[in-house]
C-alpha cells in the first residue's frame, strides 16, 4: 500500500540527510508504529507519505514514495487526498471549517462526491467514531480527545486506504488517549485500513501494533519487524518492555494483560520487598514556597478552578494530574501570577504574584509553559542566554552555565527553532532556572520527549528539589509522575479530588496507574528502577 | 432554490443568506435616517432577534464585540467634534482655549466654544455608524461568515476560502498576542510600552504565520484545489478572458464616471467586459469538481425573514422619498425627536424573524465545554489552558 524506494530527504541548509536511503513497505491492513528518539525524522517520514514533504517544506527528496501506485513525485498532496488521510500533531490547527458536520464533509466536497454519498458517509463516520452527539457542535468547543476523533473522522469520510497519524495521543489525557486508540484499532480490524502512526508514548500503542519501524535518527538505517522483536533492542522502550527485558521474558509481552500472565514468578520474588525509589527526592521539609487559598477562577461561564486549596513546600515535587481542561494549566498560571483569581488568595513567597513586575516575578517563580518554544525568541542559543542574564540582572554567563549543566554541548550558534523538542525544553528550563526561583512550574514537560530525554528531565527535577526548590509539574504522563513526584494532586472540573503521596494516589487508579503498577498489582511498585533495585538487593542478600 | 411550500425537513437552521440579507436591510434602513429614536429602534430590533435566535456557538458572541466597537465610534466622533468641530452659534457648553493656526490651515479650527447642538449632532452621526455596525454584528452572531461562504457558487468558492483564512488570521493573532505577552512576563521582560510592543511584534507574527501555514498544508492534504484535468490552453484562455473582462469593466466604469472620455459613455466596454468575466468563470466552473454537502434549503422562513428586512428598508426609503417629517435629527434649533408612524411600523416588521426563524438545535450544554483545549480565548491567553 505504501512503498518507499531508496528515499533520501535533506532539508534546505542541513548537512545531514533526515532520511537516508529508506526502503519501507507497509502492506494493506497493517497497523505500523513508527518509533524513534526525538528529532529522528519520524514526522518527516510520515509527511512524505502524501507528499507534504517535500511539496510544503522544501528540501531535496531522492528516490520515490508510492501510495496505492501513485508517486508523490508526479502529483501534489491534494491529488492523494482520496487515498491518504493525514492527521497532524495538533488537530485544532488543521480544522478548516467551524462545525463538526461540515468538517467531516470537507474532504468529500473537495473530491466532488455526490451529495447523497456524502450524507451517508458522514452519518456512518459519526456512528463509527461515536461523534453522533457532537454533530452540531462548534469545533472550538470540543475537548482534546473529541477534536482528535473529529480530525480522524474528517479524513476517514473520504474512505482513504491509508491513515497517517502523527502522535495522535500526545496531547491527550490517559482516558481520552484510550478512546482514540480504541477507535483506531476498531478501524483497522473492521475496515482493513492501513495505518501508519508515530508515537512517543509507546506504552499506549504497542499492544495494537503489527509492525514497528524504528527510526534511529541521524539518517541511520531503519529497522523494521514485528513489535516484540524490534522492542528487544530498541533504544526507546516503554516501562513494560523494560520490565520484560529485566525479567527476561520471551517473547516480550507488549500489553499489560500478556505481562500479568507471565509475571507470577516476578511477583513472588518481589514479595516482602519494599519499593525504594532510586531517584530520591527529599519531600516536603522546607518552608512553604507557594499556596493557593480558596482560589476560584472563571472564564466566562467556564469554571477553571473552584475553591482550590493547595500548598507547595520547598523540596517537594508535586504532580498535578487530571483530564484535559480540568484546570491544571490554570493552577500553574495562578502560581505564576498570569491573572488574578476571581476569588481567594495566591501567595508565592509571601506575596501576590499577580502584583509583581515581570522582573520581580522571575526571581520568585519560573514557569515553563506547555509549548516551551514560546519562551524563546532570540536569534541563537547564546543570544537567548545573554538576554536572560540581562533581563534578570544576573552576572553574564549564568544562564549559559545552567544550560551546560542540563545539556552539555548545545551549539551556541544554533537558532532555537532548529533545536529538537528536548533541547528546546532544556534551553527554556535554563533561562527560567537561571535566576534560581524558589518555585519552579512545568506545564506538560514531556510532550514530544523520548524516553532518554525524559530520563534526563527526571534527574533535573530531582536535583532541583534536592537543591531546595519547590517543583510543580502539570502532566498527563503517569510514568513521569511515577518516577519523580512526591505528591500528586488530581483535579476534576476545577476541583481538587485527591491530594496525597504519589504512590497512594496513582497506584490503584485504573486510569493513572503506571504500567509497572498494573503488572505487579496489588504490590505498590511504580517503576522499573524500583524493581531493578529490589532484585539487585535480594540478589546480594542471597 | 425551493418554494415556500417545499418541505423543511433536514434543515440545519435558517439559510445564512436570509440572515445576512435581513441584517443588511436593517443596516440600509439605518443609513436612511438620523432620527436617534429610529436609530435606537433599529439597534433594539437587531439585538432582540439575536437574543431570541442565537445559538451557543463561539461566534454568537460577536454582537457584544460590535456593540463595543460602536460605542467607541460614538465617543470618537464626539471627541473629534469637540476638538475640531464647526463653530456655529448655539448653547455653549464649555469654551476650550482656541489654538491659533497658521494662515494656510485656515479651514481648520482647534478649540473654541463647544455647543450642545454640535455635540448632539456629532453623537447622532456616530450613532448611525454604530447602528450599522450592530446590524453586522447581529448577522455574525446569527450565521457565521463561514456558513455564508459555503453558499457561494463553486467557482467563487476558492476565493471565498482565501477570505475565510484571512478572517481566521485575526483571531489567531489575538491568541498569539496573549501567549507571547504571558511568555514575556515569565521571562521578566516588559510587556507594556514601546519596548514591550517592539519585542512582541516578531514572535506574534511568527506564531500566527506558523498556524496559517499549518492550515494551508492541512487544506492541501485534504484535497483543496483539486480540479478535473483542464487542457493548459483552455485554462489559459479562461483565465485570460476573465482578466481581460475585468480590465474592460474597469475602463467602462471610468467612461461612465467621466463623460466624454470613451465612446458611448463606456457602456459597450462594461457589457463586453462583464460578458467575458461571466464566460471565463463559467468555463472554470465547469471544471471545478467541488460538490456541496447538505446545502441549506430556501423555504418559507427564509422568505419571511428576508421579507421582513426588505419591508423595514422599504418603509424608510418610501418615507424619505415622500418626505415624511421626523426622519432627520434637527439640531438647529434643538428639537426633541419624534417617532414618525410609517418608519416605526416598518422597522417593527424587522422583529418578525424572532418568531418565524426556526430555532437551531443548540449544542448540548450538558457536556462541559471546559474540557476543550483552549476553548475560550481568555483561557488560551492564560498560558494555554490544558
Task: Outline the secondary-structure elements.
The complex is a heterodimer of chains A (542) and B (386).
Chain A: E1 2-10, E2 19-26, E3 31-35, H1 42-49, H2 52-55, E4 60-67, E5 70-71, E6 84-87, H3 91-94, H4 100-111, H5 115-128, H6 144-156, E7 162-166, H7 174-191, E8 194-198, H8 202-205, E9 211-214, E10 223-226, H9 227-233, H10 239-247, H11 256-262, H12 264-270, E11 288-299, E12 302-313, E13 317-321, H13 328-335, E14 343-348, H14 358-364, E15 365-368, H15 381-392, H16 398-406, H17 421-433, E16 439-443, H18 451-466, E17 470-474, H19 478-484, E18 487-492, E19 495-501, H20 502-507, H21 515-520, H22 528-541
Parallel strand pairs in A: 3-8, 3-9, 6-7, 7-8, 13-17, 13-18, 15-16, 16-17
Antiparallel strand pairs in A: 1-2, 1-4, 4-5, 9-10, 11-12, 11-14, 18-19
Chain B: H1 16-31, H2 36-53, H3 62-84, E1 92-99, E2 110-115, H4 116-142, H5 145-150, H6 154-186, H7 193-221, H8 232-257, H9 267-287, H10 300-322, H11 341-349, H12 353-356, H13 377-381
Instruction: Please give the order of strands in the largest beta sheet of chain B.
Output: 1-2
Query: What is the CATH topology assignment of the largest domain in chain A?
Result: Rossmann fold
Number of domains of chain B: 2
Order of SSEs of chain B: HHHEEHHHHHHHHHH
**Can you name the CATH architecture of the largest domain in chain A?**
3-Layer(aba) Sandwich
Count of strand segments of chain A: 19
Global shape of chain B: globular
Please give the order of strands in the largest beta sheet of chain A: 6-7-8-3-9-10
Evaluate the radius of gyration of chain B: 26 Å
Summarize the biggest pleated sheet of chain B: 2 strands, antiparallel
Would you identify the regions of chain B where 5 or more consecutive residues have pLDDT less than 50? 1-9, 362-386
Number of helices of chain A: 22
Q: Going by CATH, what is the homologous superfamily of the largest domain in chain A? A: P-loop containing nucleotide triphosphate hydrolases
Described by strand count, sense and barrel closure, the largest sheet of chain A is: 6 strands, mixed
Low-confidence stretches of chain A: none
**Largest inter-chain contact set:** A-B, 98 and 70 residues
What count of domains describes the coordinates of chain A? Answer: 2
Amino acid at each position: 500500500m505504501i512503498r518507499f524506494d531508496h528515499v533520501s530527504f535533506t532539508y534546505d541548509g542541513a548537512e545531514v540527510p533526515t532520511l537516508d536511503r529508506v526502503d519501507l513497505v507497509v502492506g494493506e491492513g497493517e497497523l505500523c508504529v513508527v518509533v524513534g528518539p526525538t528529532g529522528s525524522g519520524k514526522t518527516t517520514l510520515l509527511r512524505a507519505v502524501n507528499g507534504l514533504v517535500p511539496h510544503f517544506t522544501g528540501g531535496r527528496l531522492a528516490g520515490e514514495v508510492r501510495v496505492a501506485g501513485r508517486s508523490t513525485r508526479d502529483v501534489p498532496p491534494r491529488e492523494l487526498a482520496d487515498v491518504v488521510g493525514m492527521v497532524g500533531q495538533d488537530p485544532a490547527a488543521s480544522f478548516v471549517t467551524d462545525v463538526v458536520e461540515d468538517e467531516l464533509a470537507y474532504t468529500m466536497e473537495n473530491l466532488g462526491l455526490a451529495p447523497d454519498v456524502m450524507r451517508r458517509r458522514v452519518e456512518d463516520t459519526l456512528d463509527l467514531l461515536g461523534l453522533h452527539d457532537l454533530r452540531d457542535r462548534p469545533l472550538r468547543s470540543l475537548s482534546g480527545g473529541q477534536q482528535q476523533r473529529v480530525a480522524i473522522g474528517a479524513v476517514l469520510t473520504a474512505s482513504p486506504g491509508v491513515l497517517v497519524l502523527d502522535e495522535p495521543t500526545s496531547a491527550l489525557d490517559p482516558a481520552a488517549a484510550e478512546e482514540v486508540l480504541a477507535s483506531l484499532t476498531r478501524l483497522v480490524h473492521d475496515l482493513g485500513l492501513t495505518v501508519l502512526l508515530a508515537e512517543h508514548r509507546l506504552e499506549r500503542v504497542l499492544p495494537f501494533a503489527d509492525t514497528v519501524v524504528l527510526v534511529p535518527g541521524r539518517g541511520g538505517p531503519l529497522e523494521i519487524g514485528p513489535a516484540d522483536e524490534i522492542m528487544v533492542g530498541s533504544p526507546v522502550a516503554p516501562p513494560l518492555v523494560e520490565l520484560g527485558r529485566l525479567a527476561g521474558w520471551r517473547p516480550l509481552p507488549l500489553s499489560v494483560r500478556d505481562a500479568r500472565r507471565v509475571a507470577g514468578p516476578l511477583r513472588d520474588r518481589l514479595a516482602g520487598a519494599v519499593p525504594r525509589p532510586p531517584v530520591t527526592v527529599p519531600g516536603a521539609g522546607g518552608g512553604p514556597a507557594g499556596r493557593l487559598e480558596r482560589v476560584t477562577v472563571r472564564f466566562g461561564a467556564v469554571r477553571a478552578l473552584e475553591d482550590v486549596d493547595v500548598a507547595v513546600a520547598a523540596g517537594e515535587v508535586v504532580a498535578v494530574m487530571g483530564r484535559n481542561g480540568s484546570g491544571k494549566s490554570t493552577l500553574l498560571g495562578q502560581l505564576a501570577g498570569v491573572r488574578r483569581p476571581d476569588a481567594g488568595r495566591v501567595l508565592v513567597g509571601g506575596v501576590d504574584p499577580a502584583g509583581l513586575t515581570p522582573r520581580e516575578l522571575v526571581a520568585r517563580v519560573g514557569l515553563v509553559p506547555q509549548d516551551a518554544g514560546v519562551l524563546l525568541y532570540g536569534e541563537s542559543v547564546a543570544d537567548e542566554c545573554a538576554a536572560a542574564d540581562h533581563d534578570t540582572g544576573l552576572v553574564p554567563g549564568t544562564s549559559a552555565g545552567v544550560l551546560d549543566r542540563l545539556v552539555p554541548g548545545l551549539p551556541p550558534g544554533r537558532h532555537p527553532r532548529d533545536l529538537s523538542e528536548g533541547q528546546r525544553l532544556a534551553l527554556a528550563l535554563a533561562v527560567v532556572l537561571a535566576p534560581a526561583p524558589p518555585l519552579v512550574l512545568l506545564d506538560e514537560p514531556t510532550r514530544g520527549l523520548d524516553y532518554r530525554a525524559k530520563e534526563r528531565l527526571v534527574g533535573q527535577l530531582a536535583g532541583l528539589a534536592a537543591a531546595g526548590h519547590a517543583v510543580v509539574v502539570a502532566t498527563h504522563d503517569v510514568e513521569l509522575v511515577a518516577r519523580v513526584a512526591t505528591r500528586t494532586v488530581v483535579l476534576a472540573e476545577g476541583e481538587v479530588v485527591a491530594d496525597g503521596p504519589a504512590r497512594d494516589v496513582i497506584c490503584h487508579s485504573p486510569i493513572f496507574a503506571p504500567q509497572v503498577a498494573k503488572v505487579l498489582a496489588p504490590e505498590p511498585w511504580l517503576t522499573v528502577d524500583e524493581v531493578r533495585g529490589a532484585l539487585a538487593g535480594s540478589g546480594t542478600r542471597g | 432554490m425551493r418554494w415556500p411550500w417545499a418541505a423543511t425537513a433536514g434543515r440545519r437552521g435558517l439559510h445564512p443568506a436570509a440572515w445576512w440579507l435581513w441584517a443588511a436591510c436593517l443596516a440600509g434602513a439605518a443609513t436612511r435616517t438620523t432620527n436617534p429614536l429610529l436609530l435606537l429602534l433599529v439597534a433594539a430590533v437587531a439585538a432582540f432577534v439575536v437574543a431570541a435566535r442565537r445559538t451557543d456557538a463561539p461566534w454568537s458572541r460577536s454582537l457584544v464585540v460590535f456593540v463595543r466597537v460602536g460605542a467607541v465610534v460614538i465617543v470618537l466622533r464626539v471627541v473629534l467634534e469637540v476638538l475640531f468641530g464647526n463653530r456655529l452659534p448655539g448653547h455653549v457648553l464649555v469654551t476650550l482655549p482656541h489654538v491659533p493656526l497658521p494662515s494656510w490651515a485656515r479651514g481648520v479650527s482647534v478649540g473654541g466654544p463647544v455647543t450642545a447642538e454640535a455635540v448632539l449632532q456629532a453623537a447622532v452621526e456616530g450613532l448611525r455608524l454604530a447602528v450599522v455596525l450592530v446590524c453586522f454584528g447581529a448577522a455574525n452572531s446569527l450565521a457565521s461568515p463561514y456558513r455564508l461562504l459555503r453558499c457561494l457558487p463553486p467557482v467563487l468558492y476558492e476565493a471565498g476560502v482565501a477570505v475565510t483564512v484571512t478572517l481566521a488570521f485575526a483571531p489567531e493573532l489575538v491568541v498569539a498576542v496573549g501567549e507571547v505577552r504571558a511568555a514575556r512576563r515569565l521571562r521578566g521582560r516588559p510587556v507594556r510600552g514601546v519596548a514591550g510592543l517592539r519585542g512582541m511584534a516578531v514572535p506574534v507574527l511568527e506564531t500566527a504565520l506558523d498556524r496559517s501555514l499549518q492550515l494551508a498544508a492541512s487544506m492541501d492534504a485534504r484535497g483543496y484545489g483539486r480540479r478535473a484535468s483542464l487542457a493548459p490552453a483552455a485554462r489559459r484562455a479562461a483565465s485570460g478572458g476573465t482578466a481581460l473582462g475585468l480590465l474592460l469593466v474597469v475602463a467602462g466604469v471610468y467612461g461612465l464616471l467621466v463623460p466624454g472620455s470613451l465612446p458611448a459613455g463606456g457602456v459597450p466596454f462594461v457589457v463586453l467586459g462583464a460578458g467575458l468575466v461571466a464566460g471565463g468563470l463559467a468555463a472554470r466552473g465547469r471544471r471545478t469538481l467541488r460538490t456541496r454537502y447538505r446545502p441549506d434549503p430556501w423555504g418559507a422562513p427564509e422568505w419571511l425573514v428576508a421579507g421582513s428586512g426588505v419591508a423595514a428598508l422599504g418603509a424608510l426609503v418610501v418615507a424619505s422619498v415622500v418626505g415624511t417629517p421626523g426622519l432627520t435629527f434637527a439640531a438647529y434649533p434643538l428639537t426633541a425627536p419624534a417617532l414618525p408612524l410609517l418608519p416605526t411600523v416598518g422597522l417593527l416588521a424587522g422583529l418578525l424573524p424572532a418568531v418565524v426563524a426556526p430555532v437551531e438545535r443548540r449544542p448540548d450544554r450538558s457536556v462541559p465545554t471546559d474540557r476543550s483545549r483552549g476553548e475560550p480565548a481568555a483561557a488560551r491567553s492564560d498560558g494555554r489552558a490544558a
